[in-house]
């Protein structure tokens, strides 16, 4: 361990307030009430502005004789303020992402390699598909398969940000693929011009590390849920309910619950007579979601975080076993339980 070279992470700041010190930013910010110890942390961090090994510090730095030096080192390493040194291009394409991976405790090269070798299918290339595919392509996800059979319409342009007026009437997948390649020529983008209607359509999808599902169909999600459970393909559902940005559940067959687990808990579709069901189907067939571009974009951004963490094998997934809704007007976050349900006839045998 003493030969391992460490460096002060670029994402760390030090602040002094009246009666305490602060190290770090964000959810990992640490408040240090002992100002003497905080000053020791500052001094130790100064020694690691350039990469150094513990052997070098113990040999050449007078501060190593400070009785709290070892305590300060442990504090800085445990909180990922001192990180193993990597010989990375600090101005490269993914350099800022590398800092984020380090802040989560990951090895930047390992995470990037996992992303570059991943292959996913994005089912639905509308507003959410636009946003998610752009974030994944710009993050270096290796193979992106765009799945949609629709064409671009004028009403799409408020939220489907990679399309322009000159694209109206063109295939969504074709235009989106061109735009993604323009943003990152190293990403391999494949176009699958079809609407998903049955199991055979899903069998044809090559990107099987993950399905990202954003499609305007109530019937599609149960089909994908059952298919993915049987085929062992993880998937994430992303969408919106008028003013609520929605993502989840993130379903990993054999590890999490599934869509049906949550539906059973919520009691959706239960207790209706056939006559009422016919009326409800008639009413709901005319449904068209009220779409607000920021709500659409928020759902895509939140979901992309979980997608990148899953593919990069880093951090925890916020939507694992949960459906999460962010209310636009109040910023209230609502969650629904989609964890494994022993009464689920679709996935109980997988646990």
> What letter string, H or E per element, gives the SSE order?
EEEEHEHHEHHEHEHEHEHEEHHHEE
CATH topology title of the largest domain: Rossmann fold
Tally the helices: what do you get? 12
Share of residues in helices: 25-40%
Low-confidence stretches: none
Structural domain count: 2
Mean pLDDT rating: 93
Strand content: 15-25%
Look at the structure and name the CATH superfamily of the largest domain. NAD(P)-binding Rossmann-like Domain
Give a structural overview.
There is one protein chain. The chain is of the alpha/beta class. The chain folds into two domains: 5-85, Outer Surface Protein A, domain 3; 117-350, 3-Layer(aba) Sandwich (Rossmann fold). The chain has helices at 35-46, 54-60, 69-78, 95-103, 108-116, 127-138, 172-183, 199-203, 220-231, 259-266, 274-285, 293-312, and strands at residues 5-8, 14-16, 21-23, 30-32, 52-53, 82-84, 119-123, 143-147, 188-192, 210-213, 235-241, 244-251, 322-327, 333-337. Helix 1 packs across helix 3, helix 4 (95-103) crosses helix 5 (108-116) and helix 6 (127-138) packs parallel to helix 12 (293-312). The relative contact order is 0.11.
Features:
eight-stranded mixed β-sheet; Rossmann fold; three-stranded antiparallel β-sheet; 351 residues; Outer Surface Protein A, domain 3; alpha/beta; 2 domains
Task: Give the structure's gist in a few sentences.
The protein is α/β, with parallel strands linked by helices and 351 residues long.
